[in-house]
Amino acid sequence: MKLLDALVEQRIAAAAARGELDDLPGAGAPLPQDDDALVPEEVRVANRILKNAGFVPPAVEQLRALRDLQAELNAVSDQVARCRLQARMLALDMALESLRGGPLVLPREYCRRIAARLTERVGTLNTAEAGSQ
Predict the structure, then answer these.
(1) Is the pLDDT of residue 58 over 80?
(2) 105 or 58: which carries more pLDDT confidence?
(3) Rounded to 5°, angle at Cα 14 from 13 and 19
(4) Predicted structure pTM score
(5) What is the pLDDT of residue 63?
(6) How many other CB atoms are found less than 10 A from the CB of residue 96?
(7) Per-residue pLDDT tens over the stretch 122-133
(8) Which of the two residues, 114 and 49, has the higher pLDDT score?
(9) CA angle at residue 12 from 55 to 26, to 5 degrees?
(10) Which residues fall within 8 angstroms of residue 93, CB to CB, at 6 or more apart?
(11) How would DSSP label each residue in the chain?
(12) Alpha carbon distance 92, 104 (integer Å)
């Protein structure tokens, strides 16, 4: 990594000597604080390159989706729709936990049973809703 850092510093110094960095937007202003203070130093450069290219880690994408589902859940009053959203949230939460490598390690059969129960619940709510109409 030190070789890469040295190469980057060398190229920056050469560009500065040619005057290519003189009129950049925000020149002289403090750099914005990044949210990568908790990211290990050895992966910060790679993360920044991916971020600048428009890519985000799967965990970040899933957290965004989870947040969006929560907002949607808060706005929905229909029980069937709420149950479907909760099932999707549970699936996303479990996937996120597995990405973290957290303590939640569920056997596949247990996950299948959870999905079956949620599907059964949605079916019951659909039947009840159809009967009330």
Answers:
(1) no
(2) 58
(3) 95
(4) 0.44
(5) 83
(6) 19
(7) 777 666 666 666
(8) 49
(9) 70
(10) 66
(11) -HHHHHHHHHHHHHHHHTTTTTT-TTTTSPPPPPS-TTS-HHHHHHHHHHHHTT---HHHHHHHHHHHHHHHHHH---HHHHHHHHHHHHHHHHHHHHHHT-S----HHHHHHHHHHHHHHHHHHHHHHHHH-
(12) 13
Per-position b or e across 99-127, b if 16+ CB within 10 A of its CB = eeeeeeeeeeeeeeeeeeebeebbeebee
- Averaged pLDDT for residues 61-83: 87
CB-CB contact of 82 with 76 (8 Å): yes
Structure tokens belonging to residue 11: 């190229």
Q: Cα(80)–Cα(124) distance, rounded to whole angstroms?
A: 9
Q: What is the rounded CA–CA span in Å between residue 53 and residue 47?
A: 10
Token pair belonging to 13: 């110094």
Of 57, 28, 27, whose CA–CA distance to 44 is shortest?
57
Residues in the chain, total: 133
